[in-house]
Amino acid sequence: MMKLVYKLQAEEYRYDFPVSYLPGPVKASIQEQVLPECSLYHNKVQFPSSGGVGLNLALNPFEYYMFYFAISLITQKNSPVTHHVSPSNSAYFILVDTYLKCFLPTEGSVLPPPSSNPGGTIPSPTPRSPAVPFSSYGMHHTSLLKRHIAHQPSVNADPASQEIWRSETLLQIFVEMWLHHYSLEMYQKMQSPHVKESFKPTEEHVLVVRLLVKHLHAFSNSLKPEPLSPSAHSHTASPLEEFKRVVIPRFVQEKLYIFLQHCFGHWPLDASFRAVLEMWLSYLQPWRYAPEKPPQSTEPLPRSVSEKWAAFIQENLLMYTKLFVGFLNRALRTDLVSPKNALMVFRVAKVFAQPNLAEMILKGEQLFLEPELVIPHRQHRLFMSPTLGGSFLSSRSPAVTDASFKVKSHVYSLEGQDFQYKQMFGTEVRNLVLKLAQLICQAQQTAKSISDHSAETMANQSFFSWFRFTPSEVNGSYTGNDLDEIGQDSIKKTDEYLEKALEYLCQIFKLSEAQLTQMMMKCGTAQDENGKKQLPDCIASENGLILTPLGRYQIINGLRRFELQYQGDTELQPIRSYENAALVRLLFRLSSVLNERFADQMEVLCSRDDFVGRLCRYHLTNPQLVQKIRYSPVVRDRTSQNWGPRISLRFLASYRTLISLLMIYFLASWFYVGPVGCTFIILTGYFLYAVIMTFFFEGWKPHEH
User: Which segments cross the bilayer (predicted)?
Assistant: First the structure.
């Protein structure tokens, strides 16, 4: 494919690419006849001829192919998938990786394209001049029809300059098509909840952007050390080395920041956010892609962040601080009992807890908060624009030695002059961290409760429990939870992730043991008599339990819950999935006839004070849910009803009971015991069991049927 592209490139063909396919901000700018600031579009906008429809870009074959290659990532939606394929194993992902390694090499120079004829060369497109005045969105501009761009002198004398245009073009196309879906103005408008989202990135899209970020870090870090003499540098630096120097701040930083801001604010609160998280963490750690190898050490200590990265951290301060606050706000709204959510909190805490990183972020904040010097307006605006426009070959801006000025320019260029900066190590964010730490403690307690409940359930589900004739599900409540299915191993992982995350947060924000102890005391670990079930925070009143704001927060986030239970007439419960519907209705009619016929006799028997009365009360009275009332906020009067002694045969409609009886009859047939004899043995055995239970455990608990 690339050979064909280069063959067409040599013949200087031009192809029309519809402007309607471009990202929203660029499309809107061109349609308003305002030239986008990205030099990729200069000299390319073609207005429709008479009778034509729509605007087009006139692209050379290389640009045309790369535009369609890049746009295919965000347009291949709702395609039928017969089986799941990992994005990293897809042909598209591998092609992106190949193109990046070829056109943005970390070693050597860009390979020259193959010539279609011996000795021939492939001409580069008309160079773009840095003298062209580039504009920003939202400012007044002249019409594209009136804009005249003069023919620029050729730079083909330098072979490296002739070939480097492919590297710049490839990167600009990838960044424009994958990241430039939100301008600064659109991003500010998107903060309103009433604005409809125009673009929703997919998980595969984010994974490919992460691949781009990782490669750009490796590409930028492969920059050769600058010579000591400035004059020597100006004569020896190759165009590729210059490109490495400016590739991230000029081409990527602003668009990636807005893209991440949008993802943090609009991505669903589920485990798929892991892709966005890893892309963000990859950008924050350029030292992971540096060519030098860490020193070998026998102790697995975390690698300290070198001071040479202080400038990168300061010039990307918002990437570290504001997005960290955005992650905190997401984490406070997620269920940390889930292992995948706990892993994300652990990953972020581990990255920010790297030695010396928090100190360098704090230093960057201090530089930003220094009193601002009087800066000439024109110079300030010039430096504030991270995308200076034009080719990277343009003259570099004068070196700015004031680190504080660099940090301020970075912040104000991305967020505007009126931006109110929220300090990462300030009181407000520190309180959010304390809330997250409290949430982590509560999630650990919830995970332990689920683990204990699962262990109890497994212990109770023994083989002999199948032979119980009175399943607890009929009168009991559903105490299960979706988290019960995550398994003991996952619960252990959750606990490990949360414990390490809490430790890292304490390191980052210097939380003391006293603060942790006080915070855990505020968790509201009110437990019932068995020390396991935890109620949401509530206040007891004459009308039952009333939730407090903390209790509502605990329920919304899945930290605590009331035990769901049926508190009406047990005979009128909805038919369960483990019951036979026809038998339930038939046995209910039979029980109703018996209860109506023998109601007076049962009342007399249950009112006796002797052993017969105790035996009848054990079997015929309705259970009093006094203990369970405490776990429900319903009005007490609803649970105080009593329907008197009665017969309930509904347990015979349970499939488990029926299977148990069939198994007993089948086993009895092996010992030549007929159905009548087996029935007599069952009734006799049950009667003895009931007598023993009545004699020893009458005060223990009422019978459930």
Answer: 655-673, 679-697
